[in-house]
Amino acid sequence: MQHSEHAERMAIEPLYLILLGAGWLLYVGAIFLSNKKRRPWPWFRTVFWSAGIISMALVLTGPLAAWSHTSFIAHMVGHLLLGMLAPLFMVLSAPMTLILRALNVDSARRLVFLLKSRPIFWLSHPVTAAILNVGGLYVLYTTDIYLAMHHNPLIELVVHAHVFFAGYLFTGAIIYIDPVAHRFSYLYRSVILIAALAGHGILSKYIYAYPPTGVPRGEAEAGGMLMYYGGDAIDLMLIVILCYHWYKATRPRLPEIGSEGAN
Predict the structure, then answer these.
(1) What's the pLDDT score for residue 38?
(2) Quick one: pLDDT at residue 3?
(3) Interacting residues of 117 by C-beta distance below 8 A, sequence separation 6+
(4) Residue 254: band (very low, low, confident or very high) from pLDDT cuts 50, 70, 90
(5) Is there a contact between 219 and 72 (Cβ–Cβ < 8 Å)?
(6) Residues 6 or more apart from 3 whose CB is under 8 A from it?
(7) Which tens digits make up the pLDDT trace of 60-119?
(8) Positive or negative, the Cα torsion across 45, 112, 186, 200?
(9) Which of 23, 78, 104, 120 is the most buried (most CB within 10 A)?
């Protein structure tokens, strides 16, 4: 049985690599199209996208992916990379801005119309994103889904997809890097972020005290601590970016030299 499960996991890894490679190539292709019509795309955005792809690849393939099936600590490292760090990197790479730059005018307008639609509004709402992100983790670790994902590659695929996309939605709902059709105030987003951080911290303590099904207590304690302190480290980056944007938006603007004379 274990040999069959291992074979199935090994068979799905090339699919992950193909999808990740395609994602990187699409981003680079969009840069090529964009640079033909507009000023060069910032190099650091490409670095962020590449870092996000690498973070995902480390979780979905290779030694860490194999170890995560037998070690809760390795699984938690994967959670931090796939659900928190990779989404942050990819939000900072501004993929939607790049797509809008690369598309022709008619296609860009259709995409903007879609982004302004009611379903997208509710999906990208900070409260919805926080529930999908943190609430999904509660479902994962307080039910038998965690145990099932290590025996069923399809469930594992669904869990990985949810963890990443929920993390991306939440990060994008808190810090505005790409154009946003429905903007919420800095105070509102800060309150949602604080609530989400509290929920994440409470869950990590719950895992420490009440290990998920099939997880030894020692590993649960180490994994809970890693989730708590590792999550705080990544969330600190999110807080710094949000506060920096807030400062830039509200700082007093000094009049330019000579502006009074011009009036």
Answers:
(1) 86
(2) 53
(3) none
(4) low
(5) yes
(6) none
(7) 998 999 899 889 999 999 999 999 999 999 999 999 999 999 999 999 999 999 988 999
(8) negative
(9) 78
Rounded distance between C-alpha atoms, residue 185 and residue 62, angstroms: 41
* DSSP 8-state symbol, 1: -
Closest CA to 214 of 166, 149, 146: 146
**pLDDT tens digits, 134-174:** 999 999 999 999 999 988 888 999 999 999 999 999 999 99
Question: C-alpha angle with apex 190: 186 to 191, nearest 5 degrees?
Answer: 125
Q: What is the rounded CA–CA span in Å between residue 127 and residue 223?
A: 27
Decide: helix, strand or coil at residue 160.
helix
Mean pLDDT of the chain, nearest integer: 90
Q: Give the span between the Cα atoms of 130 and 124, in whole angstroms.
A: 9
Going by pLDDT thresholds of 50, 70 and 90, the confidence category of residue 10 is low
Residue 25 makes CB contacts below 8 A (sequence gap 6+) with: none
CB neighbours of residue 65 within 10 Å: 22
Alpha-carbon gap, residue 79 to 38, rounded angstroms:
37
pLDDT band with cut points at 50, 70 and 90 for residue 15: confident
Distance CA 222, CA 113 (A): 46
For the four alpha carbons of 217, 222, 228 and 230, in that order, the dihedral sign comes to: negative
Domain-wise residue ranges, the chain: 2-250
What stretch of H or E contains 223? helix 217-250
The rounded distance, in Å, linking the Cα atoms of 93 and 167 is: 15
Distance CA 99, CA 28 (A): 11
